[in-house]
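Support request, please re-run this one:
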Amino acid sequence: MKNGLSRRAFQAGCLLVTALCFAGCPGRDAITEKHFVGKWKSSKLATPVYLHANGEWEIKAEDGAILQFGVWEYKDEKIVWSYKIDSHIGHDTNVVLSAKPREFRVRESDRTTTIFTKLD
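Re-run finished. Output below.
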């Protein structure tokens, strides 16, 4: 009986140590909206995309003219882009595949991947 209790105590200790290790070990850094704020070059556009901290986005020409704009939100591992064209309000939702300080990738609705590279 003593061996049985020692074995159970040992197993419980091992489980506790494993749980604490996983809880305290840094895994993949949490992606937040801050990862996306900045000026980006998209693999699908010739002009930069600006994602502002206040949730607005813009596509600007080199002369500063705003070609398209709207609001964006990072939620549930997706970026939701909202825009208005004429009187229509639309939304485009893209799954974020990866996000690093200078690059992020999203899955488009047509299943292609768009790569955003940060511009200085």
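The longest strand covers residues 88-100. The mean pLDDT is 83.
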